[in-house]
Design a protein that fits this description.
By secondary structure, the chain is mainly α. It has helices spanning 15-23, 25-47, 53-81, 83-102, 109-137, 143-167, 173-182, 185-195, 202-207, 211-221, 224-244, 250-253, 259-274, 277-292, 301-320, 326-350, 358-372, 374-385, 391-417, 422-443, 452-463, and strands at 3-6, 11-14. The radius of gyration is 22 Å and the shape is globular.
Amino acid sequence: MKTGTNKSAGKKISSKFIYFFGSFGGILFGYDIGVMTGALPFLQNDWGLQGNASVIGWITSAVMFGAIFGGALAGQLSDRLGRRKMILLSALIFIIGSILSGIAPQDGSLYLIAVRTLLGLAVGAASALVPAYMSEMAPARLRGRLSGINQTMIVSGMLLSYVVDYLLKDMPEMIAWRLMLSLAAVPAVILFFGVLHLPESPRFLVRGGKLAEARQVLACIRPESEVEAELMDIQNTARDEQQAKQSTSLSTLMSSKYRYLVTAGVGVAAFQQFQGANAIFYYIPMIVEQATGQAASSQLMWPIIQGIILVLGSLVFLGIADRFNRRTLLTVGGTVMGLSFILPAVLNSLIPGMDPMMIVFFLCIYVAFYSFTWAPLTWVIVGEIFPLAIRGRASGVASSFNWIGSFLVGLLFPIMTATISQAAVFAIFGVICLLGVAFIRNCVPETRGHTLEEIEAAGIRQGEEDGKPVMTH
């Protein structure tokens, strides 16, 4: 394992340390995605929110609402300040937001919504910055696997939150949910001190004219024989962009030069959330409650089961990430996910009185396939498909569309299930899953095994031609 000097820390730093803490931001929004699953039943009882679907939806989805803006802002600022500084700022906001959530005044719904919106700024920033940082640090042959570590961190954060929720479930209601929310500050503190020792992305450094520092970072994470060749590729790309004098306004993103790749990356990010995964992650105790009639607060083992499936799936992805094409995995995953949502509705119409727990069985199948296909690959593609000139801004837009989907699912799911059956709601998500497969087959290029510079060159060329998928193996 090669090591180099990290100027910001004044120490030598290993590539494994860089990859670990580069992806550790996933723990933050993984924890906050999952923590409301267990906290919500106690919060409902403590504040008497049963039956108030709109307030429940807003409290749950406020983080995603803030994340919409956090992703976009972080994308713009990271192109100016660097990925590393913005991750540090995100960790600080996360610490503050977590503590403020835990000390919410009694019956302070508006306060909690506002604080969780602030927390969402940090969550959205992390969701945009971590994939971009990891893709710029990883070599092409390992980029899928290393970027997939981010997904492992996300689902590990979710599982951690489920376990914490379960361990605190016997505490008084008004204390339990407050501790669940405020303990999110712990991984944020760990992230902050870890990132203090990380180097900046070599591609960002080259863009800022800091060639010596970029060479030094590459020496940490590449074999010596590859450093100069990759540095030259990055320089050539940066030089071309400088000569073209491209701005990174929103209009630039949709110019003929970049439209094809931006549409592909943003579309994948949006479909991932509109497919309904977070309806399961946020509301699984309530889903089981509706199916069985038992109290949601007694169903906190189900989130742990879902969390274990997610972690195992992320580990499967690490083993297969660079062995199968991105489009193949997304196609298989999206098809099975869609059928897992649609079949319960079909069976329920064909077999009246069917065991209502059957829908939970199919949800487990959905989670299993989601965990090693759409969940990790969305962020792999977002991290690798955008050209350097627009990567920060485009990653932020993709992240924002992802969080718009997450926000709407979190907000509308309890309202929808209050008016129509759960099976019908999930059938709607199933149709969206199948539409996502059609989008992958027609609008997304294959990127496995190509350097970021190759993806950029081929994608721009194709975008100026006929807009069909390119770089298939």
